[in-house]
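Internal tracking record. Fields below are filled automatically when a chain is submitted to the structure queue. Please do not edit lines marked as system-generated. If the sequence contains nonstandard residues, flag them in the REMARKS field before resubmitting.
Queue: standard
Priority: normal
Entity type: single polypeptide chain
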Amino acid sequence: LTETIKALDADGVVQLKARATDLLQRVGLPDPERILRQYPHQLSGGMRQRVMIALAIAGRPELLIADEPTTALDVSVQKDILELLRRLTHEENMTLILVSHDLGVIAAATQSVAVMYAGMVVERGPTDTVLRQPRHPYTQALLKARPTIGRTGRLIGIPGAPASPDTWPSGCRFAPRCPHADNKCDAKIPTLETIGGGHVVACHRLHESSVLDLSKKDLLSS
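SYSTEM-GENERATED OUTPUT FOLLOWS
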């Protein structure tokens, strides 16, 4: 931590330790002087994640990119980490880009969301709108595959397998796995189309009833 601060600020040794201690306090770690003397294996997973966040904000960034920040953490620790990130973005006046495969984390911690498949954004908009009224077949499939309390039976998986970059189709990249794909989907990459309220979707069959009907149900709560 002090090495990172030194590389960023070039402060003296005393200032380095004071700054490191302050950062550890700000990310909610008790007894920061003791933690500064410890090795990573002596800390819990949640504590290590807080140290990583301290490292990330040491340079006072305007943009913080958090890639799967809650992976391998239990639910209670996940909640604490998300609350910490939310607090720091306000205190530091930062923008947060959160990368995650956990739709619950996305729902709890973001204001807007972009859904990507095979390197392309297929749907983007306010988080609540996208997750409750998904319009792209991939977003719909993700939500249907999500386990929820009260749901019984088998989860609905997405057929097929993600293509590697050297075998991406010439048209919509989700077409080989999409139940609604037709010849146009196979031939041409769809562009993002605005459907209102900052909600945009890339799907050739966006306005057809076979796709639209699936979005009328609140998939986030079901």
